[in-house]
Amino acid sequence: MPLSNQGNRASLTFENTIKINADIIIGADGRMNSVARQYVNGNNTPIYQNFVNWIGILESNKPIFLENNVLDFWGQGERFGIVPINKYKGYWTGGKSLPLNTSLKNRNNKTQLLKIFGS
């Protein structure tokens, strides 16, 4: 999908040859093959930023969220957040600063995450 910038407008040309002009384009095309990164940086090579993220959804048969509050916990080089989707379901994300090539050999992600974020 080629992107171009003409004055204050951006244009997109899709694979099916349809072309659109817009005031703003939001690139939500993934981290590993990002057209937006290619447009902004001139290439599509991901750059490791010394931070690893884990994401997931938690569900329960009983209500687990009383209010629709976002919970976000910050530590030194660590972050954990929960966003309620409804009373029974939430989206969670955990992140930790880790040097490139850090070994995460634990086959049980739950054990690994509890070790990092359990406190």
From TrEMBL:
What this protein is called in its record is: FAD-binding domain-containing protein
Its organism's taxonomic lineage begins at: Bacteria, Pseudomonadati, Bacteroidota, Flavobacteriia, Flavobacteriales
